[in-house]
């Protein structure tokens, strides 16, 4: 249409959060699907129920896209559900990544889990101990 100015905005998928070294504590092939993450860890990482995530298995190298489901807080249990069990199993270390669509840089929040899948540390991108990542 004449007189309209076209506004072009380049939107990019930017890493918004990374949960590093979470242990899959249960795997249930009979469940509906997704990955269940404790509510307290979801809040810390800024994840919402049903949000799309990439789950990368440290042990096997397998990766899959799924959605996050909120589990009981305070327990540190990470549950892989449904067909994803064929790729990622109980006892595997995983990294859970989420993105934001933005036209500006996003400072990613990184959380690291300890051996018991409890929160060990929280850092914004490019902060924290330099030898940490």
Overall description:
By secondary structure, this protein is mainly β. The protein contains one helix and eight strands, in the order ββαββββββ. It has one helix at 39-45, and strands spanning 12-28, 34-38, 52-57, 63-71, 78-81, 93-102, 109-113, 119-124. A six-stranded mixed β-barrel has the order 1-5-2-4-3-6. It is elongated, with a radius of gyration of 17 Å. It starts with 11 loop residues before the first strand and ends in a 9-residue tail after the last strand.
Number of helices: 1
The SS-based structural class is mainly beta
DSSP strand count: 8
Shape: elongated
**N-to-C SSE string, H for helix and E for strand:** EEHEEEEEE
- Strand % is over 45%
Sheet with the most strands, sense and barrel status:
6 strands, mixed, barrel
What's the average pLDDT?
85
Strand order of the largest sheet: 1-5-2-4-3-6
Short description:
The protein has one helix at residues 39-45; strands spanning 12-28, 34-38, 52-57, 63-71, 78-81, 93-102, 109-113, 119-124. By secondary structure, the protein is mainly beta.
Quick tags:
1 helix, 6-stranded mixed barrel, mainly beta, single chain, 5% helix, disordered C terminus, 133 residues
Helix-strand layout with pairing:
Layout: E1 12-28, E2 34-38, H1 39-45, E3 52-57, E4 63-71, E5 78-81, E6 93-102, E7 109-113, E8 119-124
Parallel strand pairs: 1-5, 1-7, 2-4
Antiparallel strand pairs: 1-6, 2-5, 3-4, 3-6, 7-8
């Amino acid at each position: 249409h004449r007189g309209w100015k076209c506004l072009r905005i380049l939107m990019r998928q930017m890493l918004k959060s990374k949960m590093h070294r979470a242990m899959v504590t249960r795997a249930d092939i009979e469940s509906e699907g997704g990955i269940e993450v404790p509510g307290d860890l979801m809040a810390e990482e800024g994840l919402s129920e049903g949000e799309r995530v990439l789950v990368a298995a440290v042990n096997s190298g397998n990766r899959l896209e799924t959605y996050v489901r909120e589990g009981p807080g305070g327990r540190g249990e990470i549950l892989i559900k449904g067909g994803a069990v064929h790729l990622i199993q109980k006892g595997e270390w995983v990294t859970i990544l989420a993105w934001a669509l933005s036209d500006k840089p996003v400072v990613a929040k990184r959380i690291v889990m300890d051996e018991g899948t409890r929160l060990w540390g929280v850092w914004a991108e490019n902060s924290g101990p330099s030898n940490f990542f």
